[in-house]
Amino acid sequence: MAILWAAMFAEVVMYRTRFCPYCVRAAELLKRKGAAFREVDVSNDPATRDRLFDETGSPTVPQIFINGVSVGGFDEIAALDRRGALDPLLREPRRAP
Predict the structure, then answer these.
(1) What confidence tier does 4 reach under pLDDT thresholds 50, 70, 90?
(2) What is the DSSP letter of 57?
(3) What is the number of domains present in the chain?
(4) Rounded distance, CA 34 to CA 32, Å?
(5) What are the φ and ψ backbone dihedral angles of 42, each rounded to 5 degrees?
(6) What CATH code is carried by the domain that includes residue 19?
């Protein structure tokens, strides 16, 4: 499978902690997809974890955002991938700031 770096445009941000196995799995899936993504370690950042909980309703990590929209964690992006819905999200152009 070819990595499609040039075809992946979306801004992907993953909030994670250092020792989270689901965070590792999510990062591996995104890498296999050829997606460039930014990881934000919230291990020692209770304010950001509180903000994430307020925004997503979930206290767990990873929390993954594609173009500023929460898509959930590893289970959710894996389900999107199985349905063929992850690649189109990753190919969406970045939204203007």
Answers:
(1) very low
(2) S
(3) 1
(4) 5
(5) -110, 20
(6) 3.40.30.10
* 5 confidence band (pLDDT: 50, 70, 90): very low
Total residue count of the chain as it appears in this document: 97
Residue matched to tokens 């770096």: 5
Whether 3 is covered by a domain: the verdict is no
Residue 3 predicted with pLDDT over 80: no
Contact status, residue 19 vs residue 62, Cβ threshold 8 Å = no
Helix, strand, coil: what percent of the chain each, to 5? 40, 20, 40
Q: In sequence order, what are the beta bridge partners of 96? A: none
pLDDT, tens digit, 9 for 90 and up, residues 10-66: 999 999 999 999 999 999 999 999 999 999 999 999 999 999 999 999 999 999 999
Neighbour count for residue 29 (Cβ, 10 Å):
17
Q: Whole domain around residue 65: which residue ranges?
A: 9-91
- The two structure tokens encoding residue 43: 């291990």
